[in-house]
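Record DNA-directed RNA polymerases I and III subunit RPAC2, 119 aa.
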Amino acid sequence: MEEDQELERKISGLKTSMAEGERKTALEMVQPEDHILGNSLLYMITKNPEAEFCGYTTTHPSGNKINLRIQTRGALPAVKTFQRVLNELMNVCQHVLNKFEASIKNYKDQKASRNEPTF
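=>
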């Protein structure tokens, strides 16, 4: 029950707060990020079957801070769901990067086999 007692914590630019005794809902403040990460997190969280609600706002159109609200169905605390989603999002990004790098290598190999210059 240590998670219930730890109401606020900071993890490298991430501030998490929950109401006392409330494990289903968490508010995450992420800095310095904007809609790029906000939309990605929103998609990944709403795709998660444990999530009941997710939404985010930016503090200002030119600001670099997002407030993310997560509400779960209750089996897992919202903070744990958020951590899982972050890991899933990192895996997706790593997969995209690997595919991109493999495509670049394939392109360069094809050009080299034809003695054509690469860009």
